[in-house]
Design goal:
Strands 1, 2, 3, 4, 5, 6 and 7 form a 7-stranded antiparallel beta sheet that branches. The relative contact order is 0.12. Strand 1 and strand 2 form a beta hairpin. The protein has 2 domains: about 90 residues, no CATH class; about 110 residues, Chitinase A, domain 3, CATH 3.10.50.40. The protein is α+β, with helices and mostly antiparallel strands and about 280 residues long. It contains 6 helices and 7 strands; from the N terminus they run H-H-H-H-E-E-E-E-H-E-H-E-E. Helix 1 packs across helix 2.
Length: about 280
C-alpha cells in the first residue's frame, strides 16, 4: 500500500463534502434548513428551533464555525505556511465574485508547488512517526517479554495464555471463527468484533503473520493476548488513511471460538474494521 498523500488542492471541497455528506444539519433537518415533512407552500422558520451550541445561537454562526473547523483540520499540515489574512481575503473575493489576482496559469504553478510541498511534509511526518512508533514498540516489547506468563517466540511475537481451550489447534489452511479486540499500545481500541456483537470468520492463511502464528498456537476455546511487533503486522506503511500508523506495535485480545468446516458458512470477513485488508489483518 502506498503512503496516503492528501491533495491539499481539494481541502476546501473535502471540508464541504464532510459537512453535507449526511444531507442533514445538526437539527435533523435537510441541509436547506426546511423540515423533513414540509410541503410546498408551508411556512417554515428555519431558525425557530435552533439550539445554542458552543456559545453560538444562530445557524449561521454554528455552520460557519463548523466549516472553519473542518477546513482547519484539513490544512493542519500547512499551518506554518499559510497567511490566514490572505487566505480570508481570497475567500471573500471569490464569494463576492471579484476577479482573482491570479491567472489560471499562475494558479496552476502555485498549486503544483504546494502539492509537492505537502507530499514532502507528509513523507517527513510519516518517517518521524515510524521512528517514534518503532522505538516505543521495541522498548515496550523488551519490558513486556520479562513479565510472568508472557512468551516471546523466535519471530518476535509475544503471547500470554489467558484461558486454555481443549479443542484442536488450527492450521494455516483452516478457516477460523474468532472474537477479538485490537488496541494500540496506549490502550486505544481500533477494532473489536465484540463491539459489533458478531465474531469474525476468515481464512487463517489470509491474515498478517502475527495473527497466523498466534492463532495457530491456540486450541479451540482458548483466550490469548497477543502483542504483535510491526514487522509481523503492518510494517512501515501501517494502514494508510486508517487507524494503524507506520511501525505500530499492536495488542490483541483473541478468543478462538471454532475451526469452521468447509461449506459451513458463517459471517464473512476477518477482523473487519482495522485488522484486515485496508484495515484488516490481511496483507
Amino acid at each position: 500500500m502506498k503512503p496516503f498523500m492528501r491533495n491539499t488542492a481539494l481541502a476546501f471541497a473535502v471540508a464541504s463534502m464532510a459537512l453535507f455528506a449526511s444531507g442533514c444539519n445538526q437539527a435533523g433537518k435537510p441541509a436547506d434548513g426546511k423540515a423533513a415533512d414540509a410541503k410546498p407552500g408551508d411556512k417554515v422558520d428555519a431558525k425557530s428551533d435552533v439550539k445554542a451550541l458552543g456559545g453560538m445561537k444562530t445557524e449561521k454562526e454554528q455552520e460557519s464555525y463548523l466549516i472553519g473547523m473542518d477546513m482547519g483540520r484539513s490544512l493542519e499540515l500547512l499551518k506554518d505556511d499559510l497567511d490566514l489574512a490572505v487566505l480570508q481575503k481570497a475567500m471573500q473575493a471569490n464569494m463576492k465574485g471579484d476577479k482573482p489576482l491570479l491567472s489560471d496559469d499562475e494558479a496552476r504553478q502555485i498549486r503544483e508547488r504546494l502539492q509537492e510541498k505537502v507530499r514532502t511534509k507528509q513523507i517527513e511526518k510519516m518517517v518521524a512517526m515510524a521512528k517514534k512508533n518503532q522505538e516505543e514498540g521495541d522498548k515496550f516489547l523488551a519490558a513486556n517479554g520479562k513479565k510472568p506468563g508472557v512468551v516471546t517466540t523466535a519471530s518476535g511475537l509475544q503471547y500470554q495464555m489467558v484461558t486454555e481451550g481443549k479443542g484442536a489447534k488450527p492450521k494455516s489452511s483452516d478457516t477460523v471463527r474468532v472474537h477479538y479486540k485490537g488496541t494500540m499500545l496506549d490502550g486505544k481500541t481500533f477494532d473489536s468484533s465484540y463491539d459489533r456483537k458478531e465474531p469474525a470468520v476468515f481464512p487463517l492463511g489470509a491474515v498478517v503473520p502475527g495473527w497466523q502464528e498466534g492463532i495457530a498456537l491456540m486450541p479451540v476455546g482458548s483466550k490469548f493476548k497477543l502483542w504483535i511487533p510491526s514487522k509481523l503486522g503492518y510494517g512501515e506503511q501501517g494502514t494508510p488513511g486508517g487507524p494503524i500508523g507506520p511501525n505500530a506495535t499492536l495488542v490483541f485480545d483473541v478468543e478462538l471460538l471454532d475451526i469452521v468446516k468447509p461449506g459451513a458458512g458463517g459471517p464473512a470477513g476477518g477482523p473487519e474494521s482495522a485488522a484486515m485488508g485496508g484495515t484488516h489483518p490481511q496483507h
